[in-house]
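FAQ
Q: What does a multi-component entry look like?
A: The components come first, one per line:
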Amino acid sequence: MQYITIKEGVASLIDRGELTANKKLPTERALAEQFQTTRVTLREALTTLEAEGKIHREDRRGWFVSPPSMIYDPTSTNNFNVMASKCGFVPSSKLIQAKQVGASQEVAELLNVPVDTQVYRIDRLRMLDDRPVVVTFNYVIMENFPGLLEHDIESSLTDVYRDQYQKPYAKTHFQIKTSSLLGETAQLLRASTGSPAMLVQRVNYCAEGVLLDCDIEFWRPHAIKIESTASVITTTKNN
Amino acid sequence: MQYITIKEGVASLIDRGELTANKKLPTERALAEQFQTTRVTLREALTTLEAEGKIHREDRRGWFVSPPSMIYDPTSTNNFNVMASKCGFVPSSKLIQAKQVGASQEVAELLNVPVDTQVYRIDRLRMLDDRPVVVTFNYVIMENFPGLLEHDIESSLTDVYRDQYQKPYAKTHFQIKTSSLLGETAQLLRASTGSPAMLVQRVNYCAEGVLLDCDIEFWRPHAIKIESTASVITTTKNN
DNA sequence: GAGTGGTCTAGACCACCGT
DNA sequence: CGGTGGTCTAGACCACTCA
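Then the predicted structure of the entire assembly, as tokens:
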């Protein structure tokens, strides 16, 4: 298992400080020569390091040492900007598109509406210190937010919900699993097709329990650490 | 991007029902021939499908169609057995080892104690329908549970905490990120070295806020879907 | 013992990035 | 435009699984 040795070799380059956060690793051909192996085996080693979040790829640009990840609390109403700032990053957002669409099967299930129900769809790319880290797809129940697309929705939807419509989030249901990045989502994140991803799906409700929207988020795994505290509901023994 | 086509080809075999849950895929050589490619490219395709949770590898045994995943609520005190049963699986556990050790750097930070503080360490392998899905490492503050190792700790620590010591969980702090499986952990899960994993770390407290234990869990990604509902704490605008 | 997956070699071509 | 990463080929050997 030569690739494990190589993996540890590269990891020690990082731990020893010869490679620092956001720095590009040497070219694959140079690393392959340095570790006396071929590119295929080298990439096996780098892919494993990537799975551990220590390094990541930028499509056609090479491998980079991953900086500390942002702490993401799915149970908080804090939006991306607030969570990023708390972790010492400079957040930014880019609106990819915003339009009215019919709900797909997946979205219809999340929003608990029939397929093809008209909803607002808002696609955004978000960055930390100008590094793209997540693509979000929001789907919004139209009747709760008439004329939503006329507001400034690039930065924070939660702010608009609260300030323009007096409908802040009060409850959220979230799902987290692993996935992969494909197509335009991968491109926006400067990731190679098929790169691993963290998939976060949320359904958000306001104080009265009314369903407001859902969002589907594709995160670069190295950029996120999910963290939260919960007071647990003790269930009876016979549950 | 031939491997994307192959990936979709294999995915459609599954969606069309030609391959069903827990069934072994044809051998790599057979699939490579079927899709007119080499094993290297085929494995690229299968690895991407694995990242999406549709299939998984068992070390030296081949690729298998992944069954539905278990829904895991990190904010719940429900233990593994309860969560598994709710999802229709038959849970089982195997005690790997239980002993007294000095806290490592990582564990010391989680438990907020000095390095080398004596703690109980309990390693277990847990299965759904006899498929190994997670390896858990529990580290327990000794003074809260004197003589803990004399109880039946194979199945459920939370039950022992509650029934034998009257100290149920009341609060939990959790972290989730991606990682990879190595060494004995990989072997226990019948996974290949370097396979992707979901890493869940928890710190658990009792009602009085006393820190009880922490656990570090390495999950097979295909076997778990994290899901929870939270009433969110609305923060002020100037936070 | 046959066949499988795990690992590795030694190349190749191309599109694209950065200069 | 040179060099890089993305992708692919056509093999090989070995340890291990399974029949």
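Q: Is there any commentary attached?
A: Sometimes. For this entry: Residues 235-239 of chain A have pLDDT under 50 and may be disordered.
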